[in-house]
Amino acid sequence: MIQRVLLLPASLSLLFAGAHAADLSSTFPGKEWSRRTPAAAGLRESGLKALAEYGGGSGCVVRAGCLVFEWGDISRPRDIASAVKPFYTHFLLKAVEDGKVAGFDEPLLRWEPRLKDLNPDLGFKDRGITWRHVCNQISCYGSIERPGTAFDYNDRNMALFFDTLMLKVYGTTWEKVDEEVLHPLLTDVLQCQDNPTFMAFGTGNRPGRVAISPRDFARFGLLYLHEGNWNGKQLLNPELVRLAVSTPLPLSIPRTSGKEAAMIPDQRSIGGGGNQCDHEGSYSYTWWINGVCRDGTRNWPDVPADAFGCFGHGDIRAVVVIPSLDLIVSWNDTKIEGHERVNEALKRVIKGAKP
């Protein structure tokens, strides 16, 4: 495995001295999670309880591959909204590794020929959309800009991504995507306990939305903490994993103007519309990372710089991975909304480390 450098804000470095002194050995869950007490994991239970009180909802904390703390019902699968998007990226990475697609810069036009005739007044710009573009939300699909020139956080772009990837590249259907793709290629291997599904609301309502329990979502985070390795089996090339979680869009890419352009007739959405937010130097292949924002600050200033995560519905549903601390926090239906509250929630876990 790649050795990671511990990047901590100076004010927090002493708090983690005791946690690393615990000499924790990392493990993987089987059919059930192994458990450690907060003390055995080098964490203070008071800090974890403070997190639960602050966030509400449900969630869990995993350290060194063991379940350390939980609150609410962590076994109930719930919709995770936009936090689903790194699942799409996962299967794109797998398709690239397996040669199903030629690479990130392969045009989607190979798989979705209806892009060919869109927007003649804009030079048929959509012919240039690639997998890299849709994955990083810079396809400018549905906006006037050319692919790669602007950031448009757009759930119709994501529907195009999911439908092209699953229905055409993987050759499945909405009815069979769980049994043919999600389960055998990912969640069964991770031994997920609570039957995750790509059809959170059924095939007739925003197919492609994942329902997953907080404890199963933590397994997905653990896979990425270990750079695609699951208990000795390499599910993804580690270089592809590192690309996904550590290659943020440059600040030179602006937010879209929001001026609309034509899309495929009857284009669906997996949620809302477009132009929902800026990338703030922290968006990497559908993962949010602790990048440097336009004002020069970190996305989560009190959190190690190597942190990354999946976030949905304004951040109230998430899994956050901090590799340098061998730490994962997973939550759903919480009050943790917005970057400032994410920072505060994670700080409570970090401050729980024994001095």
Task: Please write out the topology.
Elements: H1 17-21, H2 45-55, E1 58-63, E2 66-71, E3 78-79, H3 85-97, H4 131-135, H5 155-169, H6 177-187, E4 211-212, H7 214-225, E5 229-230, E6 233-234, H8 238-246, E7 283-284, E8 287-289, E9 308-312, E10 317-322, E11 327-332, H9 339-350
Antiparallel strand pairs: 1-2, 1-11, 3-4, 5-6, 7-8, 8-9, 9-10, 10-11
Give a written overview of the molecule.
The protein contains 9 helices and 11 strands. It is α+β, with helices and mostly antiparallel strands. It has a single domain (60-350), classed as DD-peptidase/beta-lactamase superfamily (Beta-lactamase), CATH 3.40.710. The chain has a 7-stranded antiparallel β-sheet with strand order 2-1-11-10-9-8-7, with helices on both faces. A two-stranded antiparallel sheet has the order 3-4. α3 (85-97) packs parallel to α5. The protein is globular and about 65 Å long. 50% of the residues are buried.
Question: What keywords describe this structure?
Answer:
single chain, 355 residues, alpha+beta, Beta-lactamase, seven-stranded antiparallel beta sheet, two-stranded antiparallel ribbon, 9 helices, 26% helix, 12% strand, globular, disordered N terminus
